[in-house]
Amino acid sequence: MSEESSHRDTVVLLAIAVEGGLIVLAWVLGWVLGQPPLQHFFWTVPDAGRGVLATLPLLIVFFLIFYIPVQPLVRIRHFSEEILRPLLAPCSWLDLLGISVLAGLGEEMLFRGMLQPAFTTWVNFWMALAITSILFGLFHLITPTYALLAALMGAYLGWVWDYTGNLLVVVITHTLYDFLALLFLLYGPGSASPLPPEDEFEDEDEETAAVPGKEPLDGQSED
After folding, report:
1. 3 state DSSP class of 199
2. What is the model's pLDDT at position 221?
3. Residue stretches of the chain with pLDDT short of 70
4. Local structure of 31: helix, strand or coil
5. Cα–Cα nearest to 158, from 120, 102, 101, 103
6. Among 103, 114, 128, 203, which is most exposed with the fewest C-beta within 10 angstroms?
7. Residues 6 or more apart from 26 whose CB is under 8 A from it?
8. Maximum alpha-carbon separation in the chain
9. Among positive and negative, which fits the CA dihedral 144, 25, 164, 172?
10. What is the pLDDT of residue 152?
11. How far apart are alpha carbons 133 and 115 in whole angstroms?
């Protein structure tokens, strides 16, 4: 087995372990709390279409992150370019699709299918949405900004789930978003765009200044 094939197998198995583990966790917690995670999951063509449409705002935010030169967003780009892309590089598009499906199903079963409705039985809807979204953000704590964006994404998905009443919608939204974002990262035109250096955003006051008492360079006058 080649090193690249071994790397690909490791990534896929890790995704199965983590995202598949969330599915198991959702079922276990759902059983303990009396909140089956797929209780409000059912297939309808209109809701599948709503899931596709609900992906559009998330993709707009994704592209803004990649093209707005703001320091916290550039750090996310650096993570994507320097860590995530090499990690997923050996994977085929079918691997990426499988990972995205597992992530969409596992995370939505746990956070929207089980936790959010469970919290709603103890507090009001908005408080339950906030708590679930914060937990969703913490689960994605790569950088503080990334966690904040993930929490906002969680709030959006939680609102969509409550509005439609069908977990299928947010599972499709989450899955499709992840899949398209990974495809863009690995194969899209954005994968070739140069990254601005992080130190570009450091305080501009830290410019080189003459140090009092410093000896001039050889051959350089002190005029």
Report:
1. helix
2. 46
3. 1-4, 189-223
4. helix
5. 120
6. 203
7. 37, 106, 109, 110, 113, 114
8. 83
9. positive
10. 96
11. 10
Report the chain's terminal Cα–Cα distance, integer Å.
Answer: 68
C-alpha gyration radius of the chain: 22
**pLDDT score recorded for residue 201:** 45
> Which helix (H) or strand (E) covers residue 188, if one does?
none
Q: What is the pLDDT of residue 2?
A: 67
| Distance in angstroms (rounded) separating the CA atoms of residues 8 and 18 | 16
DSSP string, 45-103: HHHHHHHHHTHHHHHHHHHHHHH---HHHHHHHHHIIIIIHHHHTT--HHHHHHHHHHH
Instruction: List Cα–Cα distances, 18 to 15, 31, 97, in angstroms.
Output: 5, 20, 16
Q: How far is 126 from 139, CA to CA, in rounded Å?
A: 20
Tokens read off for 191: 């994968």
- For residues 217 and 116, give the distance between their C-alpha atoms in angstroms, rounded to a whole number: 67
Distance CA 164, CA 139 (A): 25
Half-sphere exposure of 189 (CA within 13 A, CB side): 2
Distance CA 195, CA 75 (A): 10
Predicted pLDDT of residue 223:
47
Contacts of 207 (CB under 8 A, 6+ apart): none
Do 146 and 140 contact (CB within 8 A), yes or no?
yes
The token pair that represents 135 in the structure block = 């937990």
Residue 203 pLDDT: 47
Contact 112, 125 (CB under 8 A): no
pLDDT at position 121, please? Answer: 92
